[in-house]
Amino acid sequence: MTTHSADGYLPSETEVFMNPAQVAYFRQRLEQMRDDLRHEMETIPHADADDGTREGDQTDHASADTEREFGLVNRARVEILLAQAEQALIRLDNRTFGYCADTGAPIGLKRLVAQPTTALSLAAQEARERAGR
After folding, report:
1. pTM (2 decimals)?
2. Mean pLDDT of all residues belonging to the chain
3. Which of 23, 30, 36, 46 is the most buried (most CB within 10 A)?
């Protein structure tokens, strides 16, 4: 999926890497991602939010437990994504965004456009996955 900024800008390989226009583009994307995730978090019921009635048969209880478990998993997923967005914004502020945390090499615009929260180049990610086997 290609995502253009509000003014239609899309980073290009022909530009200087992490020039001000690219930084502004990624900041806009990450801030929007963070806002969307915060909104999503607000819509997920808290784990301790219980209907309190606990009426119904075993099927009703099992269904409620399944929904509660799904909410917990979804909340954890959103919290991870939100933390990743926040970390990427910090990297933008300290000018390390777009550079691999392992190698220091540029990550590449295609990867950053597809996954702006990434901190690793594709080669470094693959190396970590191979080492983890």
Report:
1. 0.80
2. 89
3. 30
